[in-house]
Amino acid sequence: MRVAVVSDIHANLAALDAVLDALAPYDEVWQLGDIVGYGPQPDEVVARLREIGATGVRGNHDAAAIGALSTEAFNDDARAAIEWTADHITDETRAWLTGLETVVTAGEFTLVHGSPRDPVWEYMVSGSVARSNLSHFETPWCLVGHTHIAVAFRQAGSRVEAISPSERGPLKLDERRAIINPGSVGQPRDGDPRAGGMLLDTELNTVEWHRVGYPVEVVQGLMEERGLPARLIERLAFGW
Ligand code: ZN
Predict the structure, then answer these.
(1) CA of residue 68 to ligand 1 center, whole Å
(2) Omega into 116 within 30° of 0, i.e. cis?
(3) What is the whole-number distance in angstroms between the Cα of residue 169 and the centre of ligand 1?
(4) What is the pLDDT of residues 126-149, one digit of tens each?
(5) CA dihedral in degrees (187, 188, 192, 196; nearest 10)?
(6) Closest CA to 37 of 229, 172, 238, 239
């Protein structure tokens, strides 16, 4: 089975559609949270995920937008975008977000937003954080988002190594346990403004990261119309 894995879409419909096009054909879509927040089209993104039958989890921005998490720990721009989102999403969108779990098991993968130990908040930023999370999930492999950085953390003896996406092609998963991040669809933070996603092949046990351009200016225009913070609008052009 071919699975399109997407994370941190952040209400950026143009980026989501570009990533889905680039990953097609696929049999399923798995999403790792932060569906809304920052971007201008939360209802449209949720409608797209429902239409394609995406499986997945809730992130910290989603939780805050439905009032399930305080906005205190967010920075001012993030909080302003969450408040705009909370004020503008339909009851249907809110109900769908409310129905999402924070941990989902799909085949041999555990899906969470942050980490298996703290699904909504912990950032999987290093091999040592990954290592201390290995005892917190039971499947061979785990998929995370939240940092907006594409990477795989894989057991290497007593350590955990960080593997960056490679131009050389897919990463083959094996008996070593691994925690893998597809990168961010809607707000990349590695200096490359192109939207990111990952194709997972559950027969070959391979993951392949993809980057794809999308009309950033169109999304920036929508954000401006909606009065979203200037810094959030600007950063999309830089991928930061
Ligand atoms: Zn995010």
Answers:
(1) 16
(2) no
(3) 26
(4) 999 999 999 999 999 999 999 999
(5) -100
(6) 229
